[in-house]
Design a protein that fits this description.
single chain; about 475 residues; mainly alpha; 4-stranded antiparallel beta sheet; two-stranded antiparallel sheet; 16 helices; about 60% helix
Length: about 475
């Protein structure tokens, strides 16, 4: 009996020893991956401390952020037929700029912008656009890198202001409209140093929206030569990828380093707090306590941290590389690195979708620069050029294929376009709205374009 007990104890000891050895080997391998991930980032010249990416404080008199927040809060706090007044008026503003409103909706929008609260919010926006910098107050030590409000909120506020002056332009006063659009590009410029990916996404959308408004304005109140030159001076420096790269580094150094240094209890609470708005009652529904213990098992946890660093490294490479379709090339490498570990996927707020949005913005920006150059050229020469090279403008490149934008003279104007995300030249075909509720139905192949016609005005894609 004693011999049998002894054999059992020895066997258990061997099993425990093997488990300890396996655990040690797995943990050592995970730590090795983590060290290599840090070394790869350092060798690539990526910043390694949060101090390198967190912006310095600025004087209140130069900071537009408090005014933006106050203006947004003013309208979000007011009721409307759908959600709050900011969203409702913003939807009407986009519809007006896209010529999608009926007469009753146009009248409703005009009544809304006469309200004292809306006028007050727009006055705050005007004051904010006069300030050269923008720094939002965040608790970086607590991993706070998200925006102070929804990334669509500032975009909607800006759209309301543009729609208001667009109505004035249609009534014959185009000067104010062009000045408002020009000042709104200052918002994008002031937001460039902000380390939040949410803020940079809002910035991309704002630039794209302003380009769309420029193309719409040209049909009702073409700019004079001086206005064209001022707009060109602003647009030529807005297509860089540096703000997105900085935001990736900031997410890694601020949010990521904080996230992967939390205790298990702190991590569980942080993941509960990170639920989408409106889903708090279902916090961590997809990962119960038992599953949580598995993913935070030390070798797996350290491996997830290493995978997170690799994913963020791939994100930088993705933004700095030429465009490729989703699920291919560097975008696939990024998603593969991000998706192998649950915690890595949870911690990574960067999305390869942002690469497509950036390319879309750059395409529209370059098309807008080309179109303004064409209008100015026609004013000077009483004819349109045969090629865009005659405009003497740099960087009129289609970011999807890294080739010059397509261009042709048409009977009453011009067409300038990018091939878009399918990377195929569809001859300048405009995007058709989806006419079927069937999710399997496909929008026909199309390009991103600006078609200007003296007879019919401009044709652009709705944003």
């Amino acid at each position: 009996m004693q011999r049998r007990s002894k054999r059992i104890l020895i066997g258990m000891g061997v099993v425990v020893g093997l488990l300890v050895a396996v655990y040690g080997i797995a943990l050592a391998r995970s730590h090795g991956r983590l060290r290599r991930a840090y070394e790869d980032l350092k060798q690539a010249g990526r910043p390694m401390t949060a101090a390198k990416v967190v912006p310095e404080p600025i004087p209140d008199a130069r900071n537009a952020a408090p005014l933006y927040q106050q203006a947004v809060a003013t309208l979000k706090g007011l009721p409307a037929p759908k959600k709050d007044l900011l969203e409702y008026a913003g939807r009407l503003a986009y519809g007006l700029l896209a010529h999608d409103l009926d007469a009753n909706q146009v009248s409703e929008f005009e009544q809304l912008i006469q309200r004292e609260e809306v006028a007050s919010a727009l006055a705050l926006l005007e004051e904010a656009m006069q300030r050269p910098e923008c720094r939002f107050d965040r608790d970086y030590k607590a991993g706070r890198i998200d925006g102070p409000f929804g990334f669509h909120d500032l975009r909607r506020l800006a759209a309301i202001a543009r729609a208001r002056v667009y109505r004035q332009a249609k009534a014959g006063d185009g000067t104010a409209a062009w000045e408002v659009v020009r000042r709104q590009f200052r918002i994008a410029d002031a937001l460039a140093p902000d380390p939040s990916m949410d803020t940079q996404f809002a910035r991309l959308c704002l630039i794209r929206d302003c380009c769309y408004t420029i193309q719409t304005l040209c049909a009702v109140a073409p700019p004079d030569a001086d206005t064209c030159r001022k707009i060109q001076d602003i647009l030529k420096d807005l297509d860089g990828v540096e703000p997105l790269v900085r935001a990736v580094d900031a997410e890694r150094l601020v949010r990521g380093e904080w996230f992967f240094r939390l205790s298990n209890d702190e991590l569980y609470k942080a993941m509960q707090d990170d639920q989408p708005v409106g889903n708090e009652d279902n916090a961590l529904e997809t990962i119960n306590r038992a599953m949580f213990r598995i993913v935070t098992f030390r070798p797996l946890f350290v491996a997830a941290h290493a995978a997170y660093l690799r994913a963020m490294h791939k994100a930088v490479e993705m933004f700095e590389s030429p465009y490729v379709p989703r699920d291919t090339g560097i975008r696939k490498e990024f998603n593969d690195a991000r998706g192998k570990h649950f915690l890595t996927h949870w911690a990574t707020h960067v999305n390869d979708f942002f690469k497509g949005v950036h390319c879309d913005m750059v395409a529209r920006l370059h098309m807008t620069r080309a179109g303004l150059g064409l209008l100015e050229y026609r004013t000077e020469h009483d004819a349109l050029p045969q090629t865009l090279d005659d405009l003497k403008l740099e960087k009129l490149i289609d970011p999807y294929v890294e080739q010059p934008l397509r261009y042709r003279v048409e009977p009453d104007g011009f067409l300038v376009y990018s091939v878009g995300e399918d990377m195929q030249d569809n001859g300048g075909a405009a995007r058709q709205r989806k006419r079927s509720d069937d999710p399997r139905s496909k929008v026909p192949d199309h390009d991103l374009l600006w078609r200007f016609s003296d007879a019919e005005g401009s044709t652009t894609e709705n944003i």
